[in-house]
Amino acid sequence: MSTASKRKSASGRVARAEFEALAERLADIEDALTLRAAAAEFDERDALPIAMVKRIHAGEHPLRIWRERRGLTLSALAKRAGLQLGYLSEIESGKKPGSVDAYRRAAKALAVDIDALVPAEPPRRAAAARRRMPLVKGHARRRKR
Question: Whole-model pTM above 0.90?
Answer without folding.
Answer: no
